[in-house]
Amino acid sequence: MVYKELEDAKEVFHAKCRHCYTCIKSCQVEDPKPVEAALNIIFDKPANVDSLWRCVNCHTCSYACPENLDPRSLVYLARRRFPPPPRLQVFINNILSVGAVMELNPEIEEIREACGAIKLKPAKDVVEALR
């Protein structure tokens, strides 16, 4: 089930969630778990909102839910409310400016050139698509 807004999801989770924490237990991300933060937000508990940005979108939490709820959607919707932590914003800015998580390293380019590898270029098509 895909929820349009966090309030819609909150209503469904309040009605159907068993609080069995199978979704949290199934999450492969190290603590603090992103899905735990999202659940805490909708159940009005303190949450580590930075952990929302650690989710790798594997959907394991949603597959594991015995009530067929979609905890992954909660993470996605909660991210809309909370900005990424500053350390992540650096990567986002790089993606928007050069089309990659990190800027191209001139030393690596020299090594690649010496080995006869093709020259890497900023992914301008990615940058344009993101704007």
Automatic annotation (TrEMBL):
Molecular function (Gene Ontology), one example: oxidoreductase activity
Gene3D superfamilies recorded: 3.30.70.20
TM ranges: none
4Fe-4S ferredoxin-type domain ranges (all copies): 45-74
InterPro entries, per database record: 4Fe4S_Fe-S-bd (IPR017896), 4Fe4S_Fe_S_CS (IPR017900)
Pfam families the record matches: Fer4_9
Record protein name field: 4Fe-4S ferredoxin-type domain-containing protein
